Amino acid sequence: MKNNVEATDVAEKDARGGEGGMLSLVGTPIGNLSDASPRVLETLRGADVLLCEDTRVTSRLLARFGIRVALERCDENVIASRVEGVLARVAGGARVAFVSDAGMPGVSDPGQRLVDAALDEELPVEVIPGPSAVTCALVASGLGMDHFFFEGFLPRKAGERARRLAELAPIPGALVFYESPHRLVATVDSIAEAFPARRVALVRELTKLHEECVRDLSGELARRIRERGEVRGECVVVVEGPSAEELSCLRAACASGPATLEEAIAEGLDAGEPKSALAKRLAKQFGIPKSEVYDKLV
Fold first, then answer.
1. At a CB cut-off of 8 Å and minimum separation 6, what does 272 contact?
2. What is the distance between the alpha carbons of residues 104 and 140, in angstroms, rounded to a whole number?
3. Which residues contact 66 (CB under 8 A, 6 or more apart)?
4. Higher per-residue pLDDT: 296 or 116
5. How far is residue 259's CA from residue 257's CA, in Å, rounded to a whole number?
6. pTM as predicted
């Protein structure tokens, strides 16, 4: 009897459109529009306004399901100027929904700023679950994911990318990256240089017709991607977590190694280590290009 009463209360609340204002973060399909859940569609239909990154992308989703709702652009370039107005709408009783172009809002997109501001003002926020490329790629990779770290996009410049990978190396779990197909080769090459003993998976076109997962040791995967030529579609790269042996070595190096590159060079030269071998070792240790280390050596 209690369950029937609760179900009736929920149905009546849905029919009234909820009580008061609400900021709804709505997860949308990452490729296959059939992944839109009934609750996602109900929330979009019931919104007074729908904030989105690109009105053209979101319009296609709405058209697929015959949904008509006012759209407003709210991407990373304008969201700072929109926060105050959005909160005022919610406080005034409006139902405001926010979507990213695909996947869960707030994950590598500006939706997090809205949630943060709304909670500071003690305004109601709800999350309508939907697909996420991060979790889908982790499952598709088959790599251990008891622990994982989502990085998003790595830096574009090779030196900065190498340094960031060196910082991520001691994390005891899988690493997940988003990447553009145009920068994929350079990124996977950097990953292979940073983690030569780890397996890496390229997960591409998730939930779409040509969904693919290619997995291999980092260096071999880098070679295979280079040989393929053009790669299309959205890409997620999953790097296997460090083995117990690698993790132990990384921690020992952090604990006992020299604090700066200059100190490490001095130590290596004093020990009589050949310059070429020293440059290669320190490039890996400090996460910078070998040529940069060698320039300092000579």
1. none
2. 18
3. none
4. 116
5. 6
6. 0.77
The 10 Å Cβ neighbour count of residue 292 is 17
pLDDT the model gives residue 151: 96
Q: How far apart, in whole angstroms, are the C-alpha atoms of residue 235 and residue 184?
A: 8
CA angle 108, 111, 117 (to 5 degrees): 130
From CA 245, how far away is CA 201, in angstroms rounded?
A: 21
> H/E element holding 248?
helix 244-256
Q: Which two tokens stand for residue 131?
A: 């697909």
CA 247 to chain centre: 24
Q: Indicate the SS3 state at residue 32.
A: coil
Burial-class residue 239 by CB neighbours within 10 Å (0-12, 13-18, 19+).
Answer: buried
Structure tokens at 98: 């926010």
Q: Would the CA dihedral through 101, 102, 103, 108 be positive or negative? A: negative
Question: Starting at the edge strand that comes first in sequence, how are the strands of the sheet with 235-239 ordered?
Answer: 148-153, 174-179, 235-239, 199-204, 212-217
Through-space distance between the first and last CA atoms of the chain, rounded to whole angstroms: 82
Per-residue pLDDT for 73 more than 80? Answer: yes
CA-to-CA dists, residue 148 to 160, 190, 199, angstroms: 22, 19, 14
Three-state secondary structure call for residue 179: strand
Give the model confidence (pLDDT) of 19-54 as tens digits: 689 999 999 999 999 999 999 999 999 999 999 999
The amino acid at residue 261 is L
Q: At 259, which amino acid appears? A: A
Q: Residue count of the chain, please give it.
A: 298
Amino acid at 172: P
Question: Per-residue pLDDT for 123 more than 60?
Answer: yes
Say how far apart CA 260 and CA 262 lie, in whole Å: 5
Distance, in Å, from the CA atom of 88 to the CA atom of 84, rounded to the nearest integer, reads 6
Instruction: At 27, list the tokens.
Output: 């997860």
